[in-house]
Write a structure and sequence with these properties.
2 domains; eight-stranded mixed sheet; six-stranded mixed sheet; 8 helices; about 20% helix; globular
Length: about 425
């Protein structure tokens, strides 16, 4: 058999013809979006995106599609896996226990991370965002995360127009979140600084890079303005001066309680500064979000290792929606949108091109891990100080005014079924 890609924890891309007795399954496993692959049982543990042909008894607990063959779950194997397969799970075993118990009853906490190839064409970006948000909502995601620069990504030095926090872009995103009943993370857009005219920024041409979290009722829950700006010169490879068109933020947004957990907001280059992650974790964050547009130079070397490090040291889930591919003649992004669990394991990841990956947030597991390895209790701040949020951005919880909104809560008219307008900047 020929395997294209990698195996455990990341991708299985393509294999030769399916083995005898394989069954075809289209859908997602507990953590992964599955790609069209044929797997032997020994390979059927950690896969991503599309369709899979799994040899029974693998391939249970799927979120999409129907198996052409089905068998009851195998006794003694978690998620319907045979005992041999269930010994190697994506989570560390509990001390003193031979296997981990299945999650208890409660609301399903599914997050979706979007991978996008944005350009300077706002309408094209809008259509791609709306399609992916609706797809994620249809599959039961409670939180959908868009990447940095989701609304527009132009050539270096041409960042595009900015608009107020309550401008057309946010109003339309709020309508989409309300229509889909999801928490929607707008991973980074150019926010007009207060006191400056629409479509422009300050006298130096700078605007905020704003990460906004919108609730399922369409309200603005929190806004974070990027505090670490990417001013980097790597000779012959990367030359970006984000500070030439972005004004740095001056505070950190406290974590927000959502249907999937307490969410902390950051953006891209913030990933390299562990202090912000630790500060958010200290405030109670359970999920850290890093919407990004990593370069093709820095991504292969640093992207995954940084995400896993932030997850391990904070004992949080890390959700990183990313830009991918060629945006224009002068700019390309690394992609590899992923979700990392508090143990530092990649539990979902996108392949090439625009798309989605999904992961289920297991908060009992997270808190059990923190109890078994109490990092915060073991810290020695008297020796090296402590990290915390010194200046907090106020939580918003403000409704976004939308004209002719057909999706107000409690509205029973036929207009409720109308489509919200596309996201445009």
């Amino acid at each position: 058999m020929l395997v294209g890609g990698t195996s455990r924890g990341l991708f299985l891309s393509q294999l030769e013809a399916p083995p005898p007795g394989a069954m075809f399954v289209g859908g997602t496993s507990r953590y992964f979006l599955l790609k069209r692959v044929y797997l032997q049982p020994s390979l059927g543990r950690h896969v991503c995106e599309g369709r899979v042909a799994l040899k029974p008894p693998l391939g249970r607990h799927l979120c999409r599609g129907r198996p052409q063959q089905a068998r009851p779950p195998v006794p003694g194997g978690r998620w319907g896996l045979a005992p041999a397969a269930s010994r190697e799970l994506l989570r560390p075993p509990r001390r003193g226990a031979g296997s981990m118990a299945a999650p208890g009853p409660g609301p399903r906490r599914l997050v979706a991370a979007v991978q996008l190839t944005a350009t300077d064409d706002a309408e094209r970006n809008a259509a791609a965002c709306e399609r992916l948000v609706r797809e994620a909502a249809a599959r039961g995601a409670g939180l959908v995360c868009l990447p940095e620069a989701f609304a527009a990504l132009g050539p270096p030095g041409q960042p595009g127009p900015a608009e107020p926090l309550r401008g057309a872009l946010v109003r339309r995103c709020a309508r989409l979140a309300r229509a889909c009943r999801v928490w929607l993370s707008l991973g980074g857009f150019r926010e007009l600084r207060p006191g400056h005219g629409h479509g422009h920024s300050d006298s130096a041409g700078r605007a905020y890079n704003c990460h906004l979290l919108i609730g399922p009722d369409g309200s603005m829950a929190a806004a974070y303005r990027k505090i670490h700006l990417f001013d980097v010169e790597l000779a012959g490879r990367v030359s970006l001066q984000e500070s030439s068109y972005t004004h740095p933020g001056s505070d950190i947004a406290p974590p927000v309680s959502t249907s999937v957990g307490k969410v902390g907001l950051a953006i891209c280059y913030d990933l390299r500064f562990p202090e912000i992650s630790l500060a958010l974790a200290r405030e109670g964050a359970e999920i850290l979000t890093f919407p990004s547009a990593f370069t093709e130079t820095t991504g292969p070397a640093h992207w995954e290792v940084l995400l896993r490090a932030r997850a391990i040291e904070t004992q949080c889930y890390v959700v990183a929606a990313a830009q991918t591919g060629k945006h224009n003649e002068h700019r390309s992004s690394y992609g590899h949108t992923m979700v990392v669990d508090p143990w530092g394991r990649v539990i979902a990841q996108c392949q090439e091109g625009p798309g989605l990956c999904y992961a289920e947030i297991d908060l009992p597991y997270l808190h059990r891990l923190r109890q078994e390895m109490p990092l915060w209790a073991h810290r020695r701040p008297e020796l090296y100080g402590s990290v915390g949020i010194l200046k907090k951005a106020p939580l918003l919880h403000e409704a976004v005014e939308t004209e002719a909104d057909p999706c107000q809560p409690g509205d029973s008219t036929e207009e409720k079924q109308e489509e919200p307008p596309p996201i445009t900047s």
